[in-house]
Fold this sequence. Notes:
Blueprint: E1 3-7, H1 11-21, E2 26-31, H2 34-42, E3 46-49, H3 55-59, E4 66-69, H4 74-87, E5 92-96, H5 103-112, E6 115-117, H6 123-130, H7 136-147, E7 152-156, H8 163-178, E8 183-188, H9 194-202, E9 208-210, E10 219-225, E11 244-247, E12 259-262, H10 269-279, H11 286-299, H12 309-318, H13 324-330, H14 337-348, E13 351-353, E14 356-363, H15 368-377, E15 385-392, E16 395-402, H16 409-417, E17 422-425, E18 429-435, H17 447-468, H18 478-494
Parallel strand pairs: 1-2, 1-4, 2-3, 4-5, 5-6, 7-8, 7-10, 8-9, 10-11, 11-12, 14-15
Antiparallel strand pairs: 13-14, 15-16, 16-18, 17-18
Amino acid sequence: xxxxxxxxxxxxxxxxxxxxxxxxxxxxxxxxxxxxxxxxxxxxxxxxxxxxxxxxxxxxxxxxxxxxxxxxxxxxxxxxxxxxxxxxxxxxxxxxxxxxxxxxxxxxxxxxxxxxxxxxxxxxxxxxxxxxxxxxxxxxxxxxxxxxxxxxxxxxxxxxxxxxxxxxxxxxxxxxxxxxxxxxxxxxxxxxxxxxxxxxxxxxxxxxxxxxxxxxxxxxxxxxxxxxxxxxxxxxxxxxxxxxxxxxxxxxxxxxxxxxxxxxxxxxxxxxxxxxxxxxxxxxxxxxxxxxxxxxxxxxxxxxxxxxxxxxxxxxxxxxxxxxxxxxxxxxxxxxxxxxxxxxxxxxxxxxxxxxxxxxxxxxxxxxxxxxxxxxxxxxxxxxxxxxxxxxxxxxxxxxxxxxxxxxxxxxxxxxxxxxxxxxxxxxxxxxxxxxxxxxxxxxxxxxxxxxxxxxxxxxxxxxxxxxxxxxxxxxxxxxxxxxxxxxxxxxxxx
Length: 495
């Protein structure tokens, strides 16, 4: 529950009370004006008579999340801000400068408060916009968590990160360093998609690539962006203690971290980072703004897929700081021969079940080519859903796309593969990873046989799930899913 304290209650403070009191949590008003105290109490507001400039008044309150300094006297407001900052250094302080403050008072308030509001006709609206329950306080909690990290913060993206994950991680690194916490942007896997490589190179982003099993003891804290659990779509140990999670994907498991910002109604994690930057009053550097804007555009498919008001607001905030020329260069990279080869194999090996297409491309050298193949095959006449998959290093990687259909790919992929691997995504774009198990030991000369076996199992399972949608999951437990998958593999191997 959010605890709010209002120190002083002049004309501005009184105008704020009605709206602030409706927010979830508690509100206590401390003012020297006895008549104001009585008026507030008759309106059901918790108010007490006291000196808002006295540190003893604020010290007696065990917790203050948001403090409003809202008297009319500039000198008393400055003293109140000093008092609450002394006793509750982590509180989010919004201070009204008071009536006709001199420059010295305004300058010192700037150093003490998170937000200083100068006198003006729109002051009440401005204060309310700065202290919304779901914005300023969430951002303050993030800043507090980052500030409390003891040592270097490792910011980990999901495996083989996309632009949304990369941009979000780089932005979070800048946020951490703005509060004095050293941070480093990290990932497992590879950045092999040509647009993603161009994105990193053109913006000169400094990213650190880890291998499974690498020593992580140099980090005093961990943050996850664009995914929400260690060991799920990353190579971190599952028991890694997480300090920060920022993600826009709906989780299918409990998320544990000191700070969690999960907003599944927003189209991109980059929008969430832009929101935090804006509420901290930070103008992003050009490369950060360009990256975040590109991350939003990619994850919302140029504002046509699962886009929200927050995504448009974030883009409007970022655009004046971004380099649109660099964006154009990122979006027109050359396509590698490996990608063309994967697309070619996907076309040759395609299987159709009505408007649903599935294709196994066999062994992979570039897993990012799967997504491009799935996109390309979606342009085929009469195809509304595509599923393209291949295998490398003992794992089957799956990429799916949909358009103009009532199939929710995220839910369909979870139903088909979630209990035997990791799966999920958006309604029209999703993916999965499934371990080959014992078949991962098949010799190279048996690759054709392995492609046939895996192809039949994945294709049949996906087609069956799409047909049966939205029926209940056919198995009751993860163990039954795994057992059934193993039986299918064994039967295929025997054949």
